[in-house]
Amino acid sequence: MSSKPKLFYAQASPAARSTLLTIAALGLDVELIPVNLAAGEHLTPQFLKINPLHTVPTLQDGDLAVFDSHAINAYLVNKYGKNDSLYPKDAKKRAIVDQRLHFDSGIVFPRVGAVVGALLRGGAKTIEKDKADLITQAYQSLEILLEGHNFIAGDELTIADFSLVATVSSSNAAIVPIASNTYPRISAWLARLQALPYYETNQKGVDQFKGMVLSKLA
């Protein structure tokens, strides 16, 4: 039996892609197990035994199962990172990274998810203006948070960048486009992330996400 960590994931999922970026940045050897959400593979008894919340990504590392992508990414750096640059141990630096992670999990991702949920499960054929406006407000906050910094938590790349770029790049591609003249800092930040040698693992999922969203629009 393989002793490698296992990641159950769906490529189109922004959350799963943040973990794929973390794995790539750390150079980890992880067994990747795709989960077909449309076919309900996340609702099988076998999967529910691992993750009763039936979400992706899910990490299985020995007898440990971790569900939320933000928790997974922090765990991977804490356990396997050669250093702490992606998730600093310094209390002040970590507090900023944690705040940005919560900004993704509590604000940006749910607002993008509300649009996707309405299209995939609610039968919507258009992107509702009030939902798009909330994403625009999140962009405005992100633009402010990037002032004076190359990355979202300062001048060093962290797991907060992976979480937010996976979400924001998906929204930019399919829901609310990011105009470089309106959001120059976000645009420059996206370009920095896109220059990473392993960014393609996110772009593949962005393309799938875009196709999924556009297929539901009238």
Automatic annotation (TrEMBL):
Domain GST N-terminal residues, every copy: 3-84
Pfam families for the chain: GST_C, GST_N
GO biological process, alphabetically ordered: glutathione metabolic process
Transmembrane segments: none
Domain GST C-terminal, chain residue ranges per copy: 90-213
Molecular function in Gene Ontology: glutathione transferase activity
Subunit structure: Homodimer.
Similarity comment: Belongs to the GST superfamily.
Name the record gives this protein: Glutathione S-transferase
Listed InterPro entries: Glutathione-S-Trfase_C-like, Glutathione-S-Trfase_C_sf, Glutathione_S-Trfase, Glutathione_S-Trfase_N, GST_C, Thioredoxin-like_sf
